[in-house]
Specification:
By secondary structure, the protein is mainly alpha-helical. It folds into 2 domains: 18-99, Arc Repressor Mutant, subunit A; 111-240. It is built from 9 helices and 5 strands, in the order ααβααββαααααββ. Helix 2 crosses helix 4.
């Protein structure tokens, strides 16, 4: 796929790998890390006063770092009256902090072993339910994943996107999955790299089905996915289609 032109680089999406990296980098600051660990160790949400006292920092400093942890997705906020009083005169609810529900994971280059696990579980479940072969059911699950990626690319590109804009969005979505797209249609990275050595046919077939499913959901792109294993890149590449 051709690269996006200058000024058209895809923005880092909230919840994508860039957001994961920013969230984990946030913990490099010692006070912020101490506050995060303190909140995680509590059985219920804590106020900024409790957090400040727990790590021995001034309240205003705790507020700054706690709110930064919320911004980075590591903590979440809720409001509650700690006294239990209700109605007029009960006072304003307190702002409380609790651990965020999101999980953060960063690898360089990016890997997607959780996705591989989900697809394999769906494939096994589908094969058992239909009395078929696991490989075929895994392919169906992978193509469905590809169609979901196509829908995300269309959403990012917009309803009236040109083919070039749609292609740039598709590239961005694949990069988020860890494929590291190149302008020549190859992928510099396999998101399931550690599985390839022992399960080459299974993993390459899964990659092929994902890309096929994505391209099937983007009929305006004259591209086809083909198996073309080579050292140092994904086994799938993009070729000119009909």
């Amino acid at each position: 796929m051709a690269a996006a032109g200058p000024g058209n680089e895809p923005a880092v999406r909230r919840g994508g790998p860039g957001a994961d990296l920013a969230g984990l980098a946030s913990l490099a600051e010692p006070t912020r890390r101490a506050l995060y660990l303190y909140v995680r160790a509590q059985q219920s949400a804590v106020s900024r006063d409790e957090a400040a006292a727990g790590v021995g920092v001034p309240r205003h400093k705790a507020k700054f770092h706690l709110d930064k942890l919320v911004e980075d997705g590591l903590l979440e906020v809720e409001f509650a009256r700690r006294t239990g009083r209700q109605g007029p005169g009960a006072g304003r609810p307190a702002k409380l902090y609790r651990p965020g529900a999101r999980e953060f994971s960063v690898s360089v280059p990016k890997r997607s072993y959780e996705l591989a696990g989900r697809l394999m579980a769906r494939g096994i479940t589908g094969a058992r339910g239909e009395g078929g072969l696991v490989a075929g059911a895994l392919g169906d699950a992978a193509r469905e994943q590809g169609r979901e990626l196509a829908a995300e690319a269309r959403r990012q590109a917009g309803d009236d996107a040109s083919p070039a804009a749609l292609q740039a969005a598709a590239r961005a979505v694949l990069d988020e999955q860890g494929y590291a797209t190149r302008a020549d249609g190859t992928f510099a990275n396999c998101p399931f790299h550690a599985l390839v050595a022992e399960h080459t046919d299974l993993v390459c077939g899964m990659n092929l089905a994902i890309i096929e499913g994505m391209l099937g959901g983007l009929p305006r792109l004259p591209l086809a996915a083909v198996l073309d294993p080579a050292e140092g890149r994904c086994c799938v590449r993009l070729a000119a289609g009909a």
